[in-house]
Amino acid sequence: MNKNKAKQEQRVRRTARVRAKVTGTSEKPRLAVFRSLKHIRVQVIDDQAQKTLVSASDTELKNKKGTKVEQAHELGKLVAERAKAAKINKVVFDRRDKRYHGRVKAVADGAREGGLDF
To answer: What whole-number distance in Å separates Cα of residue 99 and Cα of residue 19?
Structure first.
């Protein structure tokens, strides 16, 4: 089996394992973090209605200065601000297939600082 294919299958399994435990409802939607090598995107999703309620990306940030971790922290604050405007206070955190450290943790910390509860 190809090495890349095996890695890809492991990533899919990890994502499925996390998603089996994390589900967003209308009262407590899912805060999903997608991290690539260059960018990071965050969505607040209601899985029951299958709708994205709020989204934000690091490309939308006004202040592009600082490290990727600092930008992720600002992105967490931005998504929290948008969620508060949409009257969302509580969310369930979905890290997908990534470990909870670095940029993923910075988004969570920024969202908590912005007023989201999870």
So the answer is: 14
* Strands of 40-46's sheet in order across: 51-57, 40-46, 30-35, 92-94
- How many residues in the chain? 118
**Stated pTM of the model:** 0.88
- E strands, 3-95, are 30-35, 40-46, 51-57, 92-94
Name which of 114, 86, 101, 82 is nearest 35 in CA terms. Answer: 101
pLDDT in tens, 73-109: 999 999 999 999 999 999 999 999 999 999 999 999 9
